[in-house]
Amino acid sequence: MLKRLTPPFLDNVKPPKAGRDDYTDMGQEGLILRVSHIGKKRWSVVYRITGQGGFNPKTGRELKGPQQRLSIGQYPQIGLKDAREKAEHIRTLADAGKDPKELRIAEVHAKQAAAANAAKAAEREDEERHRNSVAAIAEELLAVARVELRRPRNLEGTLTKHILPNFGDQQLSDITHVEINKLLTTYKTEGAFGTAREVKKHISKLMTFGLQHGYIDRNPMSGVLTLPKSDPNKEKKERVFSTDHLKALWNHAGSVGYPYGTLVQLVILTGCRVHEMEQATWEEIDFEERALVLGPQRSKIKDTVMIPFTDRAWALIESLPRFNQGNFMFSTSGGTKPVNSRTYMLKLMNDGLPENMREWSMHDLRHSYRTKLAQLGVRSDIAERCLGHKVQGIEGVYNHHHYLDEKRVASELYSDFVGGFHE
Q1: Is 109's pLDDT higher than 70?
Q2: Using omega within 30 degrees of 0 as the cis cutoff, is the peptide bond preceding 321 cis?
Q3: Which of 131, 145, 249, 375 is the most buried (most CB within 10 A)?
């Protein structure tokens, strides 16, 4: 049906009882509105393409091909004005010898290609963002630390528990000192000063690593809060063992035996940091000097440290099992891994102590060791070297002597004191 289509007609036209009705627009050649019996109204355009009918043998002019139809959408999503403009465009293309269907297919393919390229670009961007994310760079740092430190437990724990949950998905370059301060302030408010210091220390390591490897061009740590060494409002606890307390711990550790009991006894006798003995390997034992030799990668002062064993300590060393699978001296896995359950070790030790002696930490053993050395008259510089501390000033810079004999004499004095313990 030929009809001059208008908006009121389009809105009110009634669908046929069956089949469909076609209304050819008098206002635009070739434009048709098809109304189905269910009320759907769809636009289409009829056209003939110049050149598809060959040539007129007399005039040589190109002839138009058979009539074709192309759907251009539904009403009212496409209004009358837009439908007429689309119809005009399609017929102009057909008159110029261009196939509107092929052009539409090419347009669809172009859009699909553009979408695919955009998706690939977004994927590459996501990959690049992931490579530069805190989580990815933290994993790189840990991979290096595992080689250099073998078991960077403190770094790994702090990253996993505190840093990655807060910053893991962010770009390292996007993190500011303001965000870091906000996190540290949260810990300070909760009274977790130790956690705040650990978080700050390991964020600083992460930022330094990022700066060295080109992930960031400036380090935001310069604007980070200065943290107190401890909670200024917290009452300080006595960190030196009484003789009775140390005696009870020594004897119970002896009854527990290998690995945890022997480990605790050696920490008591040497005053070393618990992880230094905990992660010791037989390769680090100098059998001629009877000492544990920690290389720069293992010692806290980043320099070689020699920890002498007294006769009593050496007897414990000789009692340790030797494994075929691995070299770790204190192990529950055949020497392939060191013991690593500090919580279990403390529980094991506390189970054999009176209730009033269970408030202590492994670090307290170093305080007790250092205090007793002072009481025994050991020179302060030797006592500090016994603890593996770096001597400050010019002496610490230029003097590389290990003072092994002097440290052994001091350790023997302490060992004799411990030797006075008995059940």
Answers
A1: yes
A2: no
A3: 249
Residue with structure tokens 């007609």? 9
Angle at 132 (CA atoms; ends 127, 138), nearest 5 degrees = 115
Q: How confident is the model at residue 192 (pLDDT cuts 50, 70, 90)?
A: confident
Domains in the chain, ordered, with CATH?
Answer: 2-98 (3.30.160.390), 134-223 (1.10.150.130), 243-419 (1.10.443.10)
Q: What is the pTM of this model?
A: 0.52
List all residues 6 or more positions away from 249 whose beta carbon is below 8 Å from its beta carbon. 241, 264, 268, 349, 353, 357, 360
Asked if the model's pLDDT at residue 409 lies above 60, the reply is: yes
Which one, of 308, 265, 312, lies nearest residue 288 by Cα? 308
Q: Is the dihedral of CA 165, 170, 175, 179 positive or negative?
A: negative
Say if residues 37 and 17 touch (Cβ distance below 8 Å).
Answer: yes
Over the chain, what is the mean pLDDT?
A: 91
C-alpha 175/C-alpha 419 separation (Å) is 55
- Do residues 139 and 155 make contact, with C-beta atoms less than 8 angstroms apart? no
